[in-house]
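We emphasize that the prediction below concerns an isolated chain of 125 residues; any contacts that depend on oligomerization or on bound cofactors are therefore not represented. The input was used exactly as deposited, without trimming of termini.
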Amino acid sequence: MPRVKEILGKAIGGFTPRNDINLENIPYKDLNKGDQKAALLEKRKEKMDRKRQINDEIHKVQNDDLRKKKQPTRAEKKHRKREADWDEWEQLQKEENLAKKLRKGKITQEEFDELLGDDLDLSSD
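Result of the prediction step, given as a token string:
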């Protein structure tokens, strides 16, 4: 029985549905039409197999790209930011200590420039 809006949910007296009938196994009266249908189904199946194969290849490439370009998680981002902030803080402390030594006369201006230049070169790597 077809699914028609007018009969959905209504009891139809004297009708018993049969689920054991396979419509694909019923032969056509015209044999040519049956052959055409079989050829058409075969073409569709081949086309769907090709599409599925192409989609699988595309998904495989995309998944490989995603693994290579793994996005950092929030925790990783926070960790990197904390490390960068800590490195910046340490650099500032070194500069302050060198400036204090320069003011007290423990090092010369040339030594200050040299030590500060070395620290800046190391931090840029």
